[in-house]
Design a protein that fits this description.
- This protein is 39% helix and 18% strand.
- It is of the alpha+beta class.
- Strands 1-2-5-6-3-4 form a six-stranded antiparallel sheet, with helices on one face.
- Helix 1 crosses helix 2 and helix 2 crosses helix 3.
Length: 154
């Protein structure tokens, strides 16, 4: 999937390819999985969204907001970098992605802050299937996540 953008007069770049999708919840999670599968090198959980001369990478929250057309890339203080920002609101990327995917605060925090790339994709598969995320399984299967089983409430 090519990330083509159109920059407006405020320096905000909007997604123009693909066309912003109108999916939410499970359908949106499936679209994010599809986008990541099409170009796995552009998925990087440690980065909301950064565009440099070397390419563009986004985490699940970044992909979620970008695919819906609710986020664009804004020039950073470094001329060679642009960072993903939610457009025309005071929301942060992760807050808007949480709303778009229909996640609880705990699920959003675990997905956006603690999962590595593989764990995040596995969590998205649960969301896309309309199922509750099995964090115990994910923390066991992906032990290099930045949290642990002890952090889970029963």
């Amino acid at each position: 999937m090519t990330i083509d953008v159109l920059t407006n007069d405020k320096g905000i770049a909007f997604a123009i390819n693909p066309a912003p999708i109108d999916a939410r919840g499970a359908d949106l999670a499936a679209e994010v999985l599809k986008a990541i599968a099409a170009d796995p090198e552009k998925h990087k959980q440690s980065d909301w969204g950064t565009k440099t001369a070397c390419g563009t990478t986004m985490c699940v929250a970044g992909w979620t907001t970008w695919l819906t057309g609710e986020a664009g890339f804004r020039q950073s203080y470094l001329p060679e970098e642009q960072f993903l920002n939610v457009i025309d609101t005071d929301s942060f990327v992760e807050e808007r992605a949480k709303e778009l995917l229909g996640l609880s605060d705990d699920d959003a925090e675990r997905l956006f802050y603690y999962m590595n790339n593989d764990g995040a994709r596995a969590a998205l598969e649960y969301i896309a299937a309309g199922e509750k995320i099995d964090w115990r399984r994910l923390y066991t299967e992906f032990p290099d996540a930045e949290s642990s089983l002890e952090d889970l409430d029963d």
